[in-house]
Structures are given as structure tokens and as C-alpha cells.
Design a protein that fits this description.
31% helix; alpha/beta; 16 strands; Rossmann fold; Dihydrodipicolinate Reductase, domain 2
């Protein structure tokens, strides 16, 4: 039987999100350009009405490249100029992972909210320091968990679940393969365990966050975890594979697998998928590509329930409301985009998974 293809309007709640701030109402600056996610973070904020003021990174080449894509920004003379700027409300950052927490603490000490790329921490000690600082300052430490926050398939799946299409969520399984590319294209910190935090800490944080969100869990236990280096013996500190099993406080099940083995023949960097099982059906998201299929593009959503099999291309359907909500949260001191507890719990689970895996045996074929 062929899939029933529908336009998804029944799950689209009104117009796609627009500007969340009036001109001049919300200004932010970018600090730390070590990961390309900074461009998506900045674009998301700008599309939601935020205005970019400063950019700072110690590497002038990175700053020059950033300014070519964001010419309205002003290159700051130093980090302090940005952090002490009275108009900048939020610092967006994609520093080296091990340096993200310290930058966030400095930003919060200067009265700024902080929006960092994942992984937000590389140690449990950093997480605890951030928890203490957010409590003391009242500032936000938000995280760019892009595989949910910046994909329309995830927004559509959220609405399908809220509409009761699959009943109560029982299990969430996530798959986050990535392409490693030519080694020379990667910075030195990419291969350094202390700097990138390990694969479950790093790209696994996307998956831990999605599990908590779609399962409706506030807490969970890491029941099993492992990491390995199967294909890169010349880089012994790299985890090129990792997986994790979780049991939620409410009893739901979670599993995710992440790796650096996307083959060169795939048309994109990774075949990221999420499968959400409910008591009355299931949803599968093929976020970035539908392999060997006639359907082009991204954000493919499959819904199977008592009404049958349905397919929706979510691209262009819902928009990504996180960024506008974050802007309003910073202005109004609310928590509509993501609670601080949720952002930290996802990070905690990924750190605990990495720790549990490393306490076991890191597998390899060497």
C-alpha cells in the first residue's frame, strides 16, 4: 500500500513564526567561532528579529569570514568589549567545547544571557558551576540542540504527539550519524578528548535532549553506554562510535546511536533519524535525507496509526519557533523556549553516558 501523502495543515498552528522583537528591542553578539553551528545560531536569531551587534574571536580569519556573511556586525577589539556592552542582551557562542562553560560564566557575570552550541559542557564539574551561576545571577544558559530545535520535522512531530496521534509515548530512538570528512578539515581540538568531551557528550547531547523532550521526561537513568574507535586508530582519543540506553523516571525507554561513519556516497553529512513509539502508533523523522527515494529535500515525517500510513514533508510548513521564544524569554524572563532544568538535564545525561562508557572498555579493532 502506498503512503498517503498529506500537506500537514491539520498540525500547523496558524502562521509560521515571524519577528519576536521590534527594531532595536533585542541585540545580541557572537563570541567564539570555533564551530560552524554559530552561523545557524545567528541566522535563527536574526530571522526571529534579533539584531547582531558585535563579533569577537581571537582568530582574525574567522572574524573576517563571519563578517562576510554578517556585514552588519562590528568586529570587537576584545572579548571584554562585547561582554561589557550595555546593549548586548545575549551572547551566542560556539567556542571549543571545553571552553564553552567558562565563557558562559563570564557572560552571566556581566549580566548577559548565554546561548551556546552543544555540547554545553565537557565535565560534570562545569555543569555544576553553571547551575550555581544561573541560580545566583538569574541569567539563562541556553543550548543549541539543533537536531530538534532547528528542524521542522521535529516541530511537526511535537504537534502530532500533542494532538494524540500516537497515544502516550513509550520509547524514543535516535540515530545521529555524521561525516568526518578529510582529517585536515578538522581543527586540532576535534581529536582531543579533553577538548571535545567524547562522542556521547558531544553529538550524543542532541539525542539525550530529544529523548527527554519527546518522551515527556524530566529525568532518566543511563542504563548502558559504550564508545569505540573502530576506524581511526591514528587518532586514539577519538570516539567514532557510541550508543546509550536510557530509562526515564516515568518509565519510558530511550536509545540512541551516534557515529562518524557517514559514507561518501550519501548526498548529505548524515542520515539523522528519530523513531517515536506510542501506545497507538509511531512517528519516524528522516530529518536530512530520504535515502534512495523519489522524495527530495529534508524534514520527512512518517506517521502510522489507526488511521493508516501518512507522509508529510515538513520543510517550509512550521518554521522553528524556538528562536523567537528565546528572544521573548530573555526580554520577559520566562521559560517558553526551553526550561533551564531541561537544558541542563540533557547535558547531564550525555556526560553521565560518556562517563559510564569510559568506565567500561572502549572498544576497537586494533
Amino acid at each position: 500500500m502506498a503512503y498517503l501523502s498529506v500537506d500537514g495543515r491539520r498540525w500547523a498552528s496558524g502562521e509560521k513564526p515571524g519577528r519576536a522583537a521590534e527594531p532595536g528591542e533585542f541585540k545580541f553578539s557572537a563570541v567564539g567561532l570555533d564551530h560552524g553551528h554559530i552561523y545557524s545560531m545567528v541566522n535563527g536569531l536574526k530571522e526571529a528579529g534579533a539584531e547582531l551587534k558585535y563579533v569577537w574571536d581571537p582568530d582574525p580569519d574567522k572574524v573576517a569570514a563571519f563578517l562576510r556573511r554578517n556585514p552588519e556586525a562590528k568586529a570587537a577589539r576584545c572579548e571584554e568589549e562585547v561582554l561589557e556592552d550595555g546593549e548586548t542582551r545575549l551572547i551566542a557562542a560556539a567556542a571549543v567545547p571545553s571552553e564553552r562553560c567558562a565563557l558562559g560564566l563570564r557572560a552571566m557575570d556581566c549580566g548577559k544571557d548565554y546561548f551556546t552550541d552543544k555540547a554545553p559542557f565537557t565535565s560534570l564539574g562545569q555543569l555544576e558551576a553553571a547551575r550555581i551561576k544561573t541560580a545566583a545571577t538569574g541569567r539563562k544558559y541556553m543550548v543549541y540542540y539543533s537536531e530538534r530545535l532547528h528542524t521542522e520535522s521535529s516541530v511537526l512531530a511535537e504537534r502530532m504527539i500533542a494532538a494524540g496521534e500516537i497515544g502516550r509515548v513509550v520509547s524514543v530512538s535516535g540515530f545521529g550519524p555524521h561525516r568526518i570528512g578529510p582529517p585536515e578539515s578538522r581543527p586540532a581540538w576535534f581529536w582531543d578528548r579533553e577538548k571535545y568531551g567524547g562522542i556521547l557528550c558531544d553529538i550524543g547531547s542532541h539525542q539525550a535532549e530529544q529523548y527527554l523532550f519527546f518522551a515527556g521526561e524530566e529525568d532518566a537513568e543511563v542504563t548502558a553506554a559504550r564508545v569505540g574507535n573502530y576506524g581511526h586508530p591514528e587518532y586514539p582519543e577519538l570516539n567514532d562510535f557510541g550508543d546509550c540506553a536510557l530509562t526515564g523516571k516515568r518509565g519510558t525507554a530511550g536509545y540512541f546511536r551516534v557515529d562518524w561513519f557517514t559514507p561518501g556516497g550519501l548526498r548529505t553529512w548524515g542520515d539523522g533519524r528519530t523513531l517515536i513509539l506510542g501506545t497507538e502508533g509511531y512517528i519516524e523523522m528522516r530529518k536530512f535525507i530520504d535515502v534512495a527515494a523519489e522524495r527530495p529535500g529534508h524534514d520527512h515525517v512518517f506517521l502510522v496509526n489507526g488511521a493508516g500510513e501518512q507522509y508529510v514533508n515538513a520543510s517550509g510548513l512550521t518554521g522553528c519557533p524556538f528562536f523567537g521564544r528565546l528572544i521573548r524569554d530573555c526580554l520577559e524572563r520566562t521559560e517558553t523556549a526551553m526550561t533551564q532544568a531541561h537544558a541542563f538535564k540533557a547535558a547531564e545525561l550525555s556526560l553521565l553516558a560518556q562517563k559510564k562508557a569510559e568506565e567500561g572498555r572502549t572498544v576497537s579493532w586494533t
